[in-house]
Amino acid sequence: MSRKTTAHLFCSANGVVESPNLWQFDAFGPEEGELLGRAIAGGTDVIIGRKLWEEWSQYWQGADANDPFAQFINPARKHVVTRTLSGDLDWNSTVIDSDPVAYVKKLQQDGSGDIIVAGGIDTTRSLFLAGVVDALTLTVHPVVTPEGRRLFDESVPVTRLRLIDSTITSVGNAVLTYALRN
Fold first, then answer.
1. What's the pTM?
2. What strands, in cross-sheet order, belong to the sheet with 77-81?
């Protein structure tokens, strides 16, 4: 049986997913925290890009042990998509030293627990479009931002999606979960 693989990104109304801390403002309430908590609840493994791994490893290792995200991310096995890091990594992390799509497919067949794709943008895009991410959740915030990278930019061909879940939160976010449409 294949392990469930999911990704969750925050998104502006015009599709920007980069640096949500710069535009989320007051559009993150208790419902968003609860939804995010449910999304990571069964996760035991995290696929993460190098830049995000470097940021998070510096921050989360020293974070308050009572923080719910720290309780998830610190013990989780991290699998780092990188071309520049090699060898042994700290923070319960392993370098993906082969094709990330093939690596995740193999990981899906081994072990137990869900696999969470935490980013970065290129990693999430390539794994989703390759069909190894079962569900992609976008929390669309009611804000338009003039700058930042989009998950699906001009490099992505027309790709049909299937909406598998949707919720509108009290702060006005649309939480949309998609799968690739066959």
1. 0.94
2. 93-96, 77-81, 43-49, 114-119, 5-12, 135-141, 174-180, 161-168
